[in-house]
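Example A, followed by Example B.
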Amino acid sequence: MMKKMSIPTSKTSLVLFLCQIISALEVPLDLSQPPTITQQSPKDYIVDPRENIVIQCEAKGKPPPSFSWTRNGTHFDIDKDAQVTMKPNSGTLVINIMNGGKAEAYEGVYQCTARNERGAAISNNIVIRPSRSPLWTKEKLEPNHVREGDSLVLHCRPPVGLPPPIIFWMDNAFQRLPQSERVSQGLNGDLYFSNVQPEDTREDYICYARFNHTQTIQQKQPISVKVFSTKPVTERQPVLLTPTGSTSTKVELRGNVLLLECIAAGLPTPVIRWIKEGGELPANRTFFENFKKTLKIIDVSEADSGNYKCTARNTLGSVHHVISVTVKAAPYWITAPRNLVLSPGEDGTLICRANGNPKPSISWLANGVPIAIAPEDPSRKVDGDTIIFSHVQERSSAVYQCNASNEYGYLLANAFVNVLAEPPRILTPANKLYQVIADSPALLDCAYFGSPKPEIEWFKGVKGSILRGNEYVFHDNGTLEIPVAQKNSAGTYTCVARNELGKIQNEVHLEIKDPTMIIKQPEYKVIQRYGQASFECIIKHDSTLLPTVTWLKDNDELPDDERFLVGKDNLTIMNVTDKDDGTYTCIVNTTLDSVSASAVLTVVARPNPPFDLELTGQLERSVELSWIPGDENNSPITNFVIEYEDALHEPGVWHYQTEVPGTQTTVQLKLSPYVNYSFRVIAVNKIGRSQPSEPSEQYLTKSASPDENPANVQGIGSEPDNLVITWEPLKGFQSNGPGLQYKVSWRQKDVDDEWTSVIVANVSKYIVSGTPTFVPYEVKVQALNDLGYAPEPSEVIGHSGEDLPMVAPGNVQVHVINSTLAKVHWDPVPLKTVRGHLQGYKVYYWKVQSLSRRSRRHVEKKILTFRGNKTFGMLPGLEPYSSYKLNVRVVNGKGEGPASPDKVFKTPEGVPSSPSFLKITNPTLDSLTLEWGSPTHPNGVLTSYTLKFQPINNTHELGPLVEIRIPANESSLILKNLNYSTRYKFYFNAQTSVGSGSQITEEAVTIMDEAGILHPAVGAGKVQPLYPRIRNVTTAAAETYANISWEYEGPDHANFYVEYGVAGSKEDWKKEIVNGSRSFFVLKGLTPGTAYKVRVGAEGLSGFRSAEDVFETGPAMASRQVDIATQGWFIGLMCAVALLILILLIVCFIRRNKGGKYPVKEKEDAHADPEIQPMKEDDGTFGEYSDAEDHKPLKKGSRTPSDRTVKKEDSDDSLVDYGEGVNDWAGGQLFCIEDCRRAMDSKRCRCFRRCIQKLMCGMMHERGILSLNQKPIFQPFHM
């Protein structure tokens, strides 16, 4: 069975995977091997004195190793100490402290040894020390009396603990003391004040020491600080509180954190700045803490050695300190020794290389004993940091220790030499299945062991050749790497391991999967507060992999909030708030790969209102307003709007003052006198306006005389003898003071008069009476208050009141341009007679009569106004061949003046309108009768009519056009010599001497044969009435429907409708629209056995309907879906028909055999009709009868069809064609048979045949088998 393994795709995961494979290349535990230490306690092991001490030492080997310990360099006999036990199958010691033991008694240096027959491995020296948290020594603390501005250091001096405690300062309420650039804690735990302030006075400065190992906190006695003030406070230049002097040194070990500190005193508080002399501070590893007083560099190396300079600066000067940093290094590995497996006779080396500052010394041990005094082995040779092995034998197996040490520490590593002779083994399970993503590396494991070291070869497929080439990477641990696995890389791979002792192989399987992709990633969103945000994450993945989608916010789990809705491929956030701002990441994980995509959500909203409004620099006419902006809510503030309220004149009403850019938070505002101002500010961004800020304090400006005068001053008379002076009054804040009034002044223009003035208040209008009519005046209005007058106002020209014009325009002339357009001229009136502002002239004109009809009608006057001093105008839209009158009047602001004398003019003839109607009646075989009405608007004297017509064939193609000129006094015309059964299109128009008018068109069809011509008694030759009518409404009813037909007389193109309802019911009539101009309609959905009323009307003709008709539907039948051939009535009918045919045949036969001749018979004898065939003797049937009417002689003007096809009227009979109605089909057919008896012999048989067919169809229709318009379902039978 395959074991499944997924290979990760990321580079980091790939490195870890390779490391796991490399570390897995170990000697199998079923083979002999020296001990290997697998777990041990740290070198410096601080223990909790209240708990048992556990010193770890675990090892493996074959045979399993035994363990022993040394303490402080001598053997530690655990059997003699009842408090010490060793765990079974382990070297781990447990020292029982909780049952009476003391941790201090077991302080020391411990070392573990694991030993078997192949060698001994040793642990590091493990230093055991119990943690300590001593109490503070009691001391008497004097209060600190400090002058304001001086520096101060409060010493903590915590007790020495193991490990050192964490220091922090709090007050009696266990609240941390606030720290700042001025007050901060040093690395030694002291509290430094760069300068003290009165608020630093307090009696509870308490230093706390927290010992983490014992989870205890020790408290120092409270320290009292009293600050006394002196005026003025003396400023001081910086002085360093720590470190002291100008230089100092610092030694730090490689890999540790370097902390450098500078704290300075001074007033103002100094600012600290750090530099490295001769170099740059290391990027990405440098941090500033404690308000930049501490420089922190992590993971220091020898390159970080150098001089670091801190500078403290304020406005009075600066001071600096240089710290010389030296980075030393405890030993660290360059090449650590690794286990060596050799076969007898092989060579090998152990290498131990380390570095440090100072450079460490290297020493070797064999099985825990210095190699110099260890048993000799001729196969080994020590060469400094290398041991060389030659031609090893099984006795050469041992554990070697390499020790690298200097003054700052040591390194100890165990590495065994194991001499074995073993055939190859493959440690990777057989048939292991690997799954990887396409285009990513594939690593196929072939962990092996053997001594000598086997050679590894890889094959693909059952009979594949050995794998070679650049597309593969072969690792020393046996792993086959395919750097870029493709779909064709899938398959079975075979790993073969061989050495001189044997050969073995193993198969593994590789599957290639499609990569997981996010085909639609979440997109950046900007959403207004309380809106809805939705992120999509649509994925595509291999069908055999099961993806899981996880959403993160700011690389953390989504908030536990019901507003977050996670769908199959989206994330929706309802009612977004400001806290929903952030980066949202969609992570898709499968067992093989992981992909992610992120998008930022920005929640925007209207800005918060500004606050802290402040008025400064108050002057009589200006003030400075400043404010602090509110939160812009992720949408930058574009501008601020400043509004003001005048509490003196309009309390509660806010007015726009000004606006400033969004980067500005102060503005100089111009003010008006005598206004009690308060201001508010509104912030604006793209989302909208904020709420207004709280109002500022009020500011009342001093009174002054007005700065401005009223606007919009006008002088317009309302009567012929007055002058009305109006103005726009000043607003309250424009008055500039109490007692606002207006000085109104006027005088007649161009007359040497003095100004007349009057002072008014609380008004905006003054009327001057007794003025001449419409003369110009100079007008001005000046504002004043209790403190004085406004500046001199400007003068405005006005006029006294207007009166109606005195005279009419003269010399009115009319020039007729064409039949619908004329131009009128007049002389202007003198301006003095206008007595007002000339607005223009009005032309009144009206039609007197039409010259063609000589009939008067209601006079409708039309008016055209021509603005300004215009003296001519055009009169459009006139009617041709008509008589008109007009007059002209002058217009001013008061009204119209007198009219000029009426001027008469006439329009010439024009082309007429189309004839009022065109009807085509009395169709015959070769003629049509046309009737028409004269044009509604003849527009002149009609000279003639023109008729054009042309035939239309079955494909709607037009034939040759024929034109006829008709005298104007005619109203009808009979067109003769037309083709029978032919459709014609007619074009008809009227003419005057000017030309032809628009035409009217109509279509009509000549009839097919004489059967279609109405007998004179029926109404042939009648002219259709001028007014339409509908008559002869007939109905043919069945079970659920009825056929309604009617006759119509009137204009063509009428749109009909049928109204019906239940007879005797008071319900409203139901209405059905008839499509087109048909004269029949089928009412459907009727109730069987019900009496209905019906009538027919025409759309658009009010009250135009036929008389009512009543009919009754047939009774309901159980079912009509039956086979008529099995019905008894049908069988009986067929028998009756057969009998009737037999009788008719006998009668015909007897008449023929009598020998009597009649005219038709003589003709038949003389002209043997080939269509009449004798009876066939072979089958006893009659020859086919051909309808003689299909070949009758042509009438005058008719033609026989060349293809001799049967006309529709002869063969395609519908039920409607067979009788006047379905209800009287039986009686009708009796009359039909009687008529056939009297018919000519040559037509009698055909007549009988038609009667019988009508009889059968009528019966079938009554039974509901045939519809009204359905053709009979019979094959022709022969007589």
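Example B, a separate protein, is given below in the same form.
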Amino acid sequence: MARDEAQFKAAKRAYQSARDEGNHQEEARWANVIGDILKNRGEYVEALKWLRIDYDVTSKYLTEKHLLPTCQSLGEMYLRLEFFEDALFYQKKHLELAKDSDDLVEQQRASTQLGRTYHEMFLRSVDDHYSIRNAKKYFKSAMKLAKELKENPPTNKCSFLKEYIDAHNNIGMLEIDLDNLVEAQKILSKGLDICDEEEVIEDDDGRSRLHHNLGNVFMESRMWNEAREHIEKDIIICKRIGHCQGEAKGYINLGELHYRVQKYDEAILCYQKAHDLAQSMEDEDALMGQINQNIDTVNEAIKVMGELRLEEQNFKKLSRKLVSARGTGSERKWLLQQNKSLDSLIEKSSMITAWLKHLEFAKRKKRIASELCDKEKLSDSYLVIGESYQKLRKFDKALKWYNKSWEIYKSIGNMEGQALVKINIGDVLDCDGNWAGALDAFEEGYRISVEANLLSVQLSALENMHYSHMIRFDNVEEARRLQLLIDKLKQSDRKELEGPKTAGDCCPETDTEGDDYSLNSRSSTCSSPLTSNSYKRKLHNTVEELNDDAPLISFLHSKEVSPKFRTVAPVEKYGNPVKHMMASSRSSSKSSGDMQKVVNRKRIRLVLSDDEGEMHAQAGGSMAGPHSMERTATSDERNKAAAAAARGCQLFVSFKIDNELIHVEAESFGSDDEFDIDSVKAELACLYYLHLSKEKRSKGLLPIIQKILNEGKPLPCLEAVQRLRYLLAKGGVEVLVHGWIQKPLMKLYVDCCEDLTEQPNMKLLKRLYNLEVSEDEVILSECELQDVSVTPLLNALRMHGTIAMLNLSHNLLGNGTMEKLQQVFQSSGQSYGDLSLDLHCNRFGPTALFQICECPVLFERLAVLNISGNRLTDACGSYISTILKNCRALYSLNVERCSLTSRTINKAAEALEAGSMLTQLYIGHNDLISGNAIIYLLSKLASLERFSELSLSGLKLSKTVVDSLCRISKRLSLSGLMLGGTNIGADGALQLSESLLFENHELVKLDLSFCGLASKYFSRQLVETLVCGIVELNLGGNLIEQEGINALASALVRPQCSIKVLILNKCKLGLSGVVEIIQALAENDSLKELNLAGNVENKEIISSSQIEISLMHPHSSLDSSAAKEIDPARNGPCIVNRECNQLEVADSEDGQTGIEPDASGVNHSCASSWERIGAVESPLVEKLSMAIGMAKQLESLDLSNNGFSLNAAESFYAAWSASRGSLAHRHISKWTVHLSCQANKCCRLKPCCKRD
């Protein structure tokens, strides 16, 4: 320690001297040395500070070559501190620099570190497939480079033997985590053989790591003597070389070994020694926490062992009583009591991993079950014996007993038992290396559980199938499909469990038990071959009371667990200083007369994100220890949400395209009401392309899908999803390819994703596939892009070169992306040609505009800039001014909703010059823009010859501003004026309209929504002028009375009517007004879009419907006494109200009281008001349906929030589709009623995007 302190002080003096002299190279080197000394002390935070100094000095003053060692040191330090994203950043930079300088030595070091980081990320998650892939990739690359360097060293001074040995250790460690113990032992032993052959000294840290991991291998293989030998060698070497952290980890593993053989006193001593060592280090709090947790675990195990011995005494007492009761009527009673005691013993032995005891008790249980002549209990006991042999790693015997159990379950017709056994058989085969056989067994278990509607067993089987495809066969697509099925099943189960509890849901002694959807489980040493730190295992308590005659399978209840009991965990070298231990839990069951069945499960889930497939450091919170986990599938789950489970399973559809099987989630099909075949075609084309090999993808050709066939028949373009699922479940789905189209940008994007080891974003791929746009138009709105995940796209755009339009709206992009975009435009080589840049609704700040100001290419090309919906604030004022001055081609600028004030508007106005090309300006919905600022802006706009469209929406306009608008309208030929929400009132609107319409014949777009217009504005003359002279008119949010409705209807039937878009939402038209407006469209050939949302109140439809009902059914006016006849048990918990009784009353000859469901299956006594109202529609609703059918030229109609019933909405769609055929489209939900056509679908664009 004194020597270490002397080195530390000397290094600090040398650093200070170099800094004073200005010798930056020495300054950086000594900062690195100081950081390394602090790292070896365990003072990681302080070490990181010095390594950052090294990096800052090197990057500022030295060449890139000098960054290699500092990047390596920072990567290692961030890894030790578990900051994985930072670690990956520096390690990838290290590798990139090494490749640029063609330095194989540094490439090998960087690859090793990257493998370690991905390995640690993998250990801390349960669903990170990319991390394990990358860990394998980099570890193998490191070994290959180490071997090459060992055989051909760059200098005579270095043999690279150490790196080659460490490469074996890393790959062996990975094989342990994949439960490939034989392969791991082979690789690690080879590493030790190399050490012996090359005469590596005994006290070598590389040897210690190999001994450490071999100790883990032999411990998992239950070869205790060999495990102890290697663990002790690891401890001795670490002690001799002063590796304090490695020594502590060695003692933790030795404590785990003692724990597993129930030597608890020795385990405590080992943990105490590890605790003392960890305490001597500065920043090893996590390791300390793990050790303390392991000590608590051992103490709990000691208590359980005491309980087990007491229960053994109880069992012996019961055995003596049974001897005296032989041949009497109480013999069965004592047999059942023994069976109960054995269940408790089996449970407790499982909790402390005493598998030999577990086997002993399981065989006794078999004898008791034989005497009871209970086949189900006998098959249960066989299952437990199989589990014992499986945990003892005697796989042949385990298979023997599992097969016996399966035969009995089959003979008595117990489907659940058969499914459980098949899953356990699969687990044994997997542990034994028969991966294909394991997958077959899992699939058979799944088939049986689906046939028997066993939700939880389906889940267990799917998780094991998912594990096989993900880890054993590396079948990402199938694993993805199975993962989505797993998620749907869990969601279905969770929904069921969120319902109200009944008195029978929990017993009085355990009233805290919930309906946790997760499955009870029992510990395992081989059931999680993916990694030994993957899971938590859940164990069961003995319960006080039981039903003696009930079979085991009836007691498998899934209950909420409490983290009472925990087992210890060994740790691994070269990773996180702490490896969190496996947590085991005990759960109380309301009755457990027999031991619960166990279904083993592998590592659970694979989530393929659309963004960065490798960045899962956030999963670190779910770390687990080296024990594996297994699921218990419970029999009472078969009564839980069978229908929901079926719905979950049917959300996947398989398509066959060009001999490739593609799986698509049904959510891609569109809304819940309607199937969107275009979306499915796009996703199929993208998935097919991703299925191709790299060679086949080289041309960038994607299929143009003509038809999708189900049983030889084309799927309809529009079909309800529920109906579609039924169709697709009946047979295979084939896809006919019409031709092929080249998508170079998509190819570049996928290639860039591969280069960066990222998963392609499916939403982005579908946008790139868009057949309606050219390759120069890049429209990528709503793709969930972030500054990190957008990198492969930007790289692709840089290689693509030519871009005429780039739309990145509605993403999560920030200033970092804007800086990279500037580089894309600069490197494109395209110095002319208009460019449209749509960046609205992202996370850009004011400095994002600075990047435009610094890009000469954009000065020449930028024609459209939409950056609305970003918080730019007044800090962007000078940038906007520069853009208006320098971007000579700019004709459209949108800065709405950017938190701007008068200051920025004044700066923008000052920048406007007479020769400007500006044509459109949108500044609405900003903060505190004064009237003077707007008047000044208007005066400058009046000097522009080309200006024609202005948006002031959401700004409060005074009379002086309105006067100014009227004046400039006489000087400018405005084609569009948006004043929605400006509150100018009827007088201001009349003044403007007269100025705009009677003196300017160019106006085609006018927005006066929510301006407080009164009835005097809607005179017949003015309305006819508006409708006959304007193409898009928005009058929503203004009160339109009958006179205005008549004027609008009259204007719409005029042959001169030219309007195409009319918005009348929230105008209080009433049902009769809505009918009148739509009836007028029968003779209108121009109107394409009509919005009548929010114009009808519920009471208007209800009263109208009630009048009609009373005319049709005079006896339906029965008062509330009819409600008394309705049996609440028959009709459920719904409260029957007067409205329900007025709809329909059961006839006396029905043979029951209550309200019958109608033909649609809706029981109106319990239906929602949306379903009930309109069961008998009013005459006005029928007239509206007829009017909709007559408005044949209309392409989009919005009737949302008008209180229409489901029946009414369906009748509207029937009338709509009658005149439009297959082009008809609908979006109908509780409050939404959208009718549209294929070419003009509703909701396809957000309101802020419709302008373009």
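On Example B: The CA atoms of residues 1224 and 1237 lie 5 Å apart.
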